[in-house]
Amino acid sequence: MYNPSAIGGNATTSAGSRVYVYEVQGLRQNAETDKTNYPIRQSGSVFITVPYSRMNQEMQRITRMGGKIVSIRPVDETATANGSSQSQPKAVDTAKKPMTQAKPKAHADVPVNIYKPKNPGIGKVISNEPLVDKGGIGIVQHITIDLSDTDYQYVEGQSAGIIPDGTDENGKPHKLRLYSIASTRHGDHMDDKTVSLCVRELEYKHPETGETVYGTCSSYLCHIDKGAEVKVTGPVGKEMLLPDDPDATIIMLATGTGIAPFRAYLKRMFDQQEKVANPDYQFKGLAWLIFGIPVTPNILYKEWLEGMQSEYPDHFRLTYAISREQQNPDGGRMYIQHRVAEHSAELWELIQKPNTHTYMCGLKGMEDGIDEALAAEAEKNGVNWDEFRKQMKKDGRWHVETY
After folding, report:
1. CATH code for the part of the protein at 121-236
2. pLDDT confidence bin for 81, thresholds 50/70/90
3. pLDDT tens digits along 285-299
4. Which of 115, 265, 361, 377 is catalytic?
5. Active-site residue, 401 included
6. N or C: less crowded end of the chain, CB within 10 Å?
7. Does residue 179 have an active-site annotation?
8. Out of 52, 179, 220, 359, which one is annotated catalytic?
9. What is the pTM of this model?
């Protein structure tokens, strides 16, 4: 369940004075709901107006009462200022006809596009740390941004938009770039005030001039100074969300900075502070990360990953594919698809389980090889992989975000 606490500020700040409407379904009639000042229905929705400063407490209270939040929306401040409050829809006369209830959309309570390009949130960089060890290839940074002066909220698996400073060759502001969020909804400092990104500086040779070209936004972020302001949009995305089931099997296939959302998943699953902050989510399933990188110094978050594997051997499995140091069975470089092929029988067995979710994030080139490896194993079992994968996608168990 989406469970943010107040993100910075208090009721006297612009953020703290915001008011939101929760659409809630499934509230039970009990001693606690008897104290409420709104009706409890057997069907349909209840609309509850909540000040920003009490969002977290109200979500927890709704959960205790057996309710489910199906949507959250800000009250239209302009309409309220003009004397037309939109905090609660008009009541429907149910005496004349039975109430019909639309099926709520999946993940309706997930925040999306709180900030848009024309009106981005303004954050402040509080750290920018290198992730590539000596002898590694390229520049990859872990960047943490303070959002305490905004209403920004997100959940694991979403992406944040960044608008780099400056203008393009036509004198227009740069367009935003999306980056997978590498922190949990509580942020790396567990104060619900930050978002962290894992960013690789894009660098390539111009095909005609041979000149070295650097990515506009990735270079901006990788070299940004502590204390600098940064324009943030979003969050966006519902494709890569982590299931609420604490007994699920989570298979994660990553290359390079594709590890970003998986860092958020793993912190939510295994970090001790997260366990305290999320009493309703205590992971007891299996998480398996297969991580493709070129050389050992490019294993992002290496010490943290290996420490977690050591501490939770029954629940976390870590497999590397180090392309320039390891060989595949044919004597060539070891890529992630070769690791998938190597473990295809076990992976195939796991993905038969209805609560197994498979995630893929990183370079788009990884998809075909992974499909080929799993298709071969499916064929051994008399199953058409394309059809099986489509069914997993339909069931919400196959998640891909590649670039």
Report:
1. 2.40.30.10
2. very low
3. 999 999 999 999 999
4. 361
5. yes
6. C
7. yes
8. 179
9. 0.73
